Amino acid sequence: MKKDIIWANCEFKIGAMDIEAIPATHLNEIAFAGRSNVGKSSLVNAITGRNSLVRVSKTPGCTRQLNFFELSEQIYLVDMPGYGFAQRAKKEKYGWGRLITEYLTGRVRLRRIFLLIDSRHGLKEGDIEIMKLLDKKAVTYQIVLTKIDELKEAELQKVIEETTLKIKKHPAAFPEIIVTSSERKLGIDVIRKEILGLI
Ligand code: GTP
Ligand code: MG
């Protein structure tokens, strides 16, 4: 039987720079993926209510490995390095790019991918590329718009509408998107509810 989740009871367990370094785990996994700087690590902090569990930075490329955090001894939250960081493009192609795609498409315990999109920018080419790959491999993912505190209400409605329309073409995308701000703690309850359903 599931125990109650204590959100703040979350600790770093594994940091992996290559796929072979990740041990098989006995718990389900939830991944936070997306472009560099989109707010993945900040969202993990917001979900756990632990401001300094994961390091965040204004500089893209802050998270450099797959970081597994065990939440309340029940599930792993996996904070991923970002993709689409131009200065690192070449390296990424053979390093992080491979790590990210292999993890996202080859992990039996991976129950959900939250694919984070900066609400100010909407879906970009790199996002679509990852989405197509996940569609092809039939790995389901859910779009999470981040940093909505930066938008006016009308701008937010526009990006929600546009994104919802665009993901209709993607068979592995959840039809509902989640709208969040880690800074203002908006939408965090929605993500937590999804996580509870995945343990
Ligand atoms: P990488 O690890 O480099 O891929 O980045 P990341 O996706 O983990 O982003 P991170 O959480 O490090 O945040 C990047 C920047 O965005 C930081 O300066 C955060 O303070 C900022 N940020 C994150 N979430 C929010 C938010 O909800 N609102 C606003 N306004 N800024 C945010
Ligand atoms: Mg990060």
Low-confidence stretches: none
The ligands found in this model are: guanosine-5'-triphosphate, magnesium ion
Do you know the CATH topology? Rossmann fold
As an assembly, this protein is single chain
What overall geometry do the principal axes of the alpha carbons give?
globular
Into which percent range does the helicity of residues fall? 25-40%
Strand tally is 7
From the coordinates shown, what is the CATH architecture? Answer: 3-Layer(aba) Sandwich
Number of separate helices? 6
Structural class: alpha/beta
Q: Strand order of the main beta sheet, please? A: 1-3-4-2-5-6-7
How would you describe this protein?
This protein is α/β, with parallel strands linked by helices. It has one domain: P-loop containing nucleotide triphosphate hydrolases (Rossmann fold), CATH 3.40.50.300. Helices cover 31% and strands 21% of the residues. It is built from six helices and seven strands. It has helices at residues 40-48, 89-94, 96-105, 125-137, 153-167, 188-196, and strands at residues 10-16, 28-34, 66-71, 75-79, 110-118, 141-146, 178-179. Strands 1-3-4-2-5-6-7 form a seven-stranded mixed sheet, with helices on both faces. A hairpin with a 3-residue loop joins strand 3 and strand 4. The model has no long low-confidence stretch (mean pLDDT 91). The structure holds guanosine-5'-triphosphate (GTP) and magnesium ion (MG). Magnesium ion (MG) binds next to helix 1.
